[in-house]
Amino acid sequence: MPNILLFNKPFGVLSQFTGAAPEQTLSAYIKQTGFYAAGRLDKDSEGLLLLTDDGKLQQFIANPEHKQGKTYLVQVEGEIDAVAINLLNKGVLLKDGVTNPAQARAVAEPMLWERQPPIRQRKLIPTSWLELTLFEGRNRQVRRMTAAVGFPTLRLVRWRIADWELGDLQPGHSRLVNWHSA
To answer: Can you list the alpha helix ranges (DSSP code H) found in 48-140?
Structure first.
């Protein structure tokens, strides 16, 4: 039966096992052998990264054709409004075309760990949070979408992939589950 590692990828860590020093990679955190990332999470993003020891499962999870929803908690610059939320829900025009409709909603500030280093904050500009679920995986898509509707992303935490959720898993920690215990 395939195994899955739920990993809370810290900010600044690459979603790969090798890299030029002094970059941090998964090898600093994942000691189990035979596991490979099922998808990617940018170096400057945090949160849930799935790794598996099964190639077919890896392809299934990572392939956008299977419509595995990915949910992000996103801190943006400014007070997100209904107009921006509506645009995100309908799909946003980016340089590489219109995105698929997302599921977006404003949320209260979530109870998360402190990010290291902390995000930059400007005294006179408020921030707000939204929950955004995507069903496709373009490069830096969340950041490009929020910027396109006028609310640049300050902090990006992937919270859920399909039925797997980060829960209380702390940055740099992982939890082993099998395919059917998601």
So the answer is: 55-62, 82-90
